[in-house]
Specification:
This protein has 92 residues and is mostly helical. It has one domain. It has four helices and no strands. The longest helix has 27 residues. The radius of gyration is 16 Å and the shape is globular.
């Protein structure tokens, strides 16, 4: 039980907005559907850059690029879910 991973602090709404603003600069790379070695390397470099810029001003602590990518994917899923709920409400 001693090796239990410590849970990170929650992201603030301002940090989520800041992450989305940083990703806008690299969106064409990050959202690219290709999976060849060249694109994968560019994606990794883009996430590393976003991570460095995010950590330079983050309040809740340092995050890895994997954590930021996971947050971004979660935000996209929630956004799509909210849009779908709104569209169902319009139909009914």
């Amino acid at each position: 039980m001693e090796n239990k991973k410590k849970r990170g602090s929650n992201y603030t709404p301002a940090e989520k907005d800041m992450l989305l603003e940083l990703i806008k600069k690299y969106q064409n790379i990050i959202e690219n559907k290709e999976t060849n070695a060249h694109i994968t390397l560019k994606k990794r470099q883009a996430w590393d850059t976003v991570c460095q810029q995010y950590n330079a001003v983050a309040v809740s602590g340092c995050r890895t690029w994997q954590q930021l990518r996971h947050l971004y994917e979660n935000l996209k899923q929630r956004s799509k879910r909210n849009i779908a709920k709104a569209n169902v409400g319009l139909i009914l």
